[in-house]
Amino acid sequence: MESILKELREQLNIEESNMFFYCPSCEFKYTFEEAMDYGFSCPGCGNMLQEFDNGELIKDLEGQIRFLKEELKINVPVLFLSSKSTEKDIYRALEAGAVDYVTKPFSLKILLQKTLNLIISTSDV
Ligand SMILES: [Zn+2]
Predict the structure, then answer these.
(1) N or C: which end of the chain has fewer CB within 10 A?
(2) Distance 19 CA to ligand 1 centre (A)
(3) Are 29 and 22 in contact (CB under 8 A)?
(4) How many structural domains are present in the chain?
(5) pLDDT in tens, the chain (125 residues)
(6) Are residues 33 and 63 both part of a single domain?
(7) How far is the CA of 47 from the centre of ligand 1 (A)?
(8) Is 48 found in the same domain as 17?
(9) Are residues 43 and 6 in the same domain?
């Protein structure tokens, strides 16, 4: 899911930082540079290229990104495993949203059970 988010962000970046042109008959989209190269006429049919308003597309991408970020926040529980064991360390991790904090040295048996409980409690079943 993280990689999808990354792709969406890159796509959003491209859409935001470029101007696009399109041919209404061929439904083909060109970047400003490409359109320039073609002299603003479609290489397929010779029609004048028109400016493409990608405002809706950008809004759509932003919406998808927001949705994915929420999903990630909700569905990925964080369990801290750390050698730092002061109250401050633990509190900071919990405050940042960690659901649990295990300090070293730890019992593997207990860690496994905690992880299992976490998976069970956050699964959709
Ligand atoms: Zn065309």
Answers:
(1) C
(2) 18
(3) yes
(4) 2
(5) 678 888 999 999 999 999 999 999 998 999 999 999 999 999 999 999 999 999 999 999 999 999 888 877 766 778 888 888 899 989 888 887 788 899 888 899 999 999 888 888 877 65
(6) yes
(7) 5
(8) yes
(9) yes
Ligand 1: centre distance to CA 10 (Å): 27
> Peptide bond before 105: cis, by omega within 30 degrees of 0?
yes
Q: Facing residues of 54 across strands?
A: none
Separation of 29 CA from ligand 1 center, angstroms? 10
Residue 60 Cα to ligand 1 middle (Å): 26
Can you point out the beta strands (E) in 15-56?
20-23, 28-31, 50-52
- Residue 107: domain span: 79-122
Taking the centre of ligand 1 as the mean of its atom positions, its distance from the CA of residue 55, in whole angstroms, is 22
Alpha-carbon distance 105 to 116, whole Å? 19
Residue with tokens 């409980």: 117
Q: Which of 32, 56, 73 is the last residue of a domain?
A: 73
Say whether both 45 and 92 belong to one domain.
no
Question: What is the number of residues in the chain?
Answer: 125
Q: What is the pTM of this model?
A: 0.52
